[in-house]
Amino acid sequence: MTGDNQFGTNISQSGGETVVALFGELDVASSQGLSDELVSLIEGGATDLVIDLAKLAFIDSTGLSAILRANRELGENGHLVLREPTPLVRQVLEITGLAGALQVEP
């Protein structure tokens, strides 16, 4: 990952939601850090978690695992939404069946 594809996050609050915007490439090099960050937000009291995928260029299985871990940590006490996946990320979600298992907004 170099240049514009370097992974990063931007966390903000919008209404009662915690929005985690992802950008760059989410892969084995960055997924553990994201997973830890999401769990930390949940342990800190975030219950309505929105993961904004509009600027995520790439995701692999380890990135999907980080998102699934956050969903599992929220359990019945919270709500996870994947918002605006790029066409490539949406395709990965559909191929893996996660588009039907998680809430994905346009």
Mind explaining what this structure looks like?
By secondary structure, this protein is of the alpha/beta class. The mean pLDDT is 94. The chain has a single domain, classed as Transcription Regulator spoIIAA, CATH 3.30.750. The chain contains four helices and five strands. The protein has a five-stranded mixed sheet with strand order 1-2-3-4-5, with helices on both faces. α2 links the parallel β3 (48-59) and β4. The protein has helices at residues 31-43, 61-74, 87-96, 98-101, and strands spanning 8-14, 17-26, 48-59, 79-83, 103-105.
What is the topological layout?
Elements: E1 8-14, E2 17-26, H1 31-43, E3 48-59, H2 61-74, E4 79-83, H3 87-96, H4 98-101, E5 103-105
Parallel strand pairs: 2-3, 3-4, 4-5
Antiparallel strand pairs: 1-2
Helix pairs in contact: 1-2
Primary descriptors:
106 residues, Transcription Regulator spoIIAA, alpha/beta
Give the N-terminus to C-terminus distance in angstroms.
27 Å
Main pleated-sheet profile? 5 strands, mixed
Task: Report the mean per-residue pLDDT as an integer.
Answer: 94
Tell me the Rg in angstroms. 13 Å
**Beta strands, count:** 5
CATH class: Alpha Beta
Summary?
Helices cover 39% and strands 35% of the residues. The chain has helices at residues 31-43, 61-74, 87-96, 98-101; strands at residues 8-14, 17-26, 48-59, 79-83, 103-105.
